[in-house]
Design a protein that fits this description.
353 residues, alpha/beta, Rossmann fold, Rna Polymerase Sigma Factor, Chain: A, eight-stranded mixed β-sheet, two-stranded antiparallel sheet, 39% helix
């Protein structure tokens, strides 16, 4: 069974902005057992509203008799800094004030998040990671981490994400934050501040996560006499209510801002130059119907990451296709690993000659 654990960093942690946290904790989940060579580590970075329990939201990829079987692999995922699934975030107690952070929690970037992840990696004495994998926000963090620690990761699986967040994506996120700001409770310092606004924000987000075809196939009315109370309308309300039961507006706000600030070219001479510094063998995966991270963003990565592999998932689920089309994603990773075996075999034959 997956094992939830906590990592405590007791020293002051400076963020990219110059702000500091007086230490933090990360909730993380492990599954499987390290082999004697410690060469079977897979590190997962979760999406915006995900948790460290990757068997919950990527259950068809991880588990017994799945592609990443815990009998063969040691899989780990940490809840992001600023999260609300056990890691230090806005609802945590600030040890300096003995009160929850709420609005005073400092803004952070993906670069800050992966530096925190790396402290956990060092604590666990994981010198090499076989595969680093992430989708969406998690894909942004995985790419950033592979640049921050170029000699740690052997392979990178970058799914439905980008090298720099687009004006289109930023506009979607700001529109959601506008909804949160319109909630009068957002100005208060309480655990439920902005909750109603976040429900609307989530409904807006669903329009970027899915696709016209998704709604047409799943929310179409069966008859011709309906004039109100449409399935698509109730579905939007349901999605907002569902998220509000497990998330908070502070974390939603902070993580969407971290996504906006994603730019691997920052302080590295631009995106193209930064991507030439990427060392892991890289698989880039896109979803053909993705509206939020359109496939041209993954084609751009493929063009600028030397010797990268590319796989296009065909799906009517839009951006969420990376969470749904597990058979195609499994096939993509399987083919990616198979290339390693073929290269090893060719190198062996050359050595024999």
């Amino acid at each position: 069974m997956p094992t939830p654990q906590l990592f405590h960093h007791q020293q002051e942690f400076q963020l990219e902005s110059g702000a500091t946290l007086p230490g933090f904790q990360l909730a993380y989940t492990t599954y499987g057992t390290l082999n004697p060579q410690r060469s079977n580590v897979v590190w997962v970075c979760h999406a915006l509203t995900g948790s460290s329990d990757f068997t919950d939201w990527w259950c068809d990829l991880f588990g017994e008799d799945k592609f990443y079987d815990p009998r063969e692999w040691f899989v780990i995922c940490a809840n992001t800094l600023g999260g609300c699934y056990g890691s230090t975030g806005p609802l945590s107690i600030n040890p300096k004030t003995l009160q929850p952070y709420f609005h005073t929690f400092p803004q952070f970037t993906n670069r800050d998040v992966v530096r925190a992840f790396d402290l956990l990696r060092q604590e666990l004495e994981l010198e090499r990671i076989h595969t680093l994998i992430g989708g969406s926000l998690g894909g942004q963090q995985a790419l950033e981490w592979a640049l921050v620690q170029p000699d740690v990761f052997e392979r990178l699986v970058h799914v439905a994400s980008n090298a720099r967040h687009s004006p289109w994506g930023i506009a979607f996120n700001e529109t959601q934050r506008m909804a949160i700001r319109q909630d009068p409770s957002w100005e208060s310092s309480t655990a439920n501040a902005g909750k109603e606004g976040m429900k609307t924000a989530r409904a807006i987000a669903m329009l970027s996560y899915r696709h016209y075809k998704t709604y047409n196939e799943s929310q179409q009315e069966p008859g011709h006499s309906i004039t109100e109370d449409f399935r698509a309308a109730s579905y939007q309300v349901y999605q907002g209510e569902k998220l509000a039961q497990r998330f908070n507006a502070y974390t939603y706000w902070l993580l969407s801002k971290a996504m906006d600030s994603h730019n691997v070219g920052r302080d590295r001479g631009g995106v193209e130059k930064a991507l030439t510094q990427l060392k892991p063998r890289t698989l880039i995966v896109g979803v053909n119907s993705d509206l939020l991270f359109p496939v041209e963003e993954q084609y751009f990565l493929h063009e600028h990451v030397e010797s990268s592999s590319f796989y296009l998932i065909n799906s009517s689920y839009g951006h969420d296709g990376f969470l749904v089309e597990f058979e195609q994603l499994t096939e993509a990773i399987k083919d990616f690993y198979q290339q390693d075996k073929l290269k090893a075999a060719l190198n062996y034959e050359e050595q024999q000659w």
